[in-house]
Amino acid sequence: MEGTLALIDAIIEEHKQLREDIETSEHIADDLGEKTALIDTVDSTMPDVLINHLSELGVKRIDYVVANHAEQDHSGAIPQVLEKYPEAKVVCTPKCKDMLIDLLMIPDAKFITVNDRETISLGDRTLEFIHAPWVHWPETMLTYLRGDKILFPCDFRSRFQGTG
After folding, report:
1. Where are the domains of the chain?
2. What is the pTM of this model?
3. Domain 5-152 is in which class?
4. Alpha carbon distance 131, 116 (integer Å)
5. Residue ranges with strand state E in the chain
6. pLDDT tens for residues 28-55?
7. Of the candidates 60, 53, 76, which has an alpha carbon nearest to the alpha carbon of residue 6?
């Protein structure tokens, strides 16, 4: 996956054409820097599809799983992603952390909570987290990929629409 930035939904990719059959809001598997981040997962009924896509992309390591929102269409497959990539940490708002612990029983030690406008470096890329409570739900957060100027808006427009 060297030299590839893959967005599953908007699909920006240099080497492969992916199937667009994941019902999800937004993803990024960024293997261009020192760290790899996955932004949102998929519904709890579709973890195998997501894991297969990550394998097809050659994603060998995920450092961060960004949870923009605790609803299952965004976070339902976090347990399966953490199982496949045990070094990964879930990045989310404090409110989202509480909800994901309750909903998915993810251990407290697997979380990194971020404040509004806080950033995480992926090496040559930076993710910025923008808290947006009640834009959709109380724990909603947007993620901005600085430099590339890509906003992952969660459910900012009330809901996402799958393309597959």
Report:
1. 5-152
2. 0.79
3. alpha beta
4. 5
5. 5-6, 29-30, 37-39, 64-66, 89-92, 111-113, 119-121, 126-131, 141-145, 150-152
6. 444 445 888 999 998 889 999 999 989 8
7. 53
